[in-house]
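note to self: dont lose this again. the chain is below, predicted strucutre after it. 116 aa total, dont forget to put it in the shared folder this time
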Amino acid sequence: QVQLVESGGGLVQAGGSLRLSCAASGRTLSSYRMGWFRQAPGKEREIVTAITWSTGNTDYADSVKGRFTISRDNAKNTVYLQMNSLKPEDTAVYYCAAGKYVYDYWGQGTQVTVSS
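---
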């Protein structure tokens, strides 16, 4: 079992920045892929970015390329999402997820609200 706890959400003005954290416990993540998802009101959950823990390889949704950066800290067993140049359309609940082939483990989510 992997437990994931997100933090760092909040209210920010358009153009601002936030950094989300996802602290993992229960297992080492060396064989896992970590992802950040988001779900806006009335919309389906979508993947924002992901990182393969062992290699550091990353992928980004087109909507966040150049603005968001995913990273990991091996010592802290934590994944980060640095979000810059935030837009109102980035407003959503952001979830951290982990899995080897599918995302089996999910955090509780953290709200990000970007005001115009």
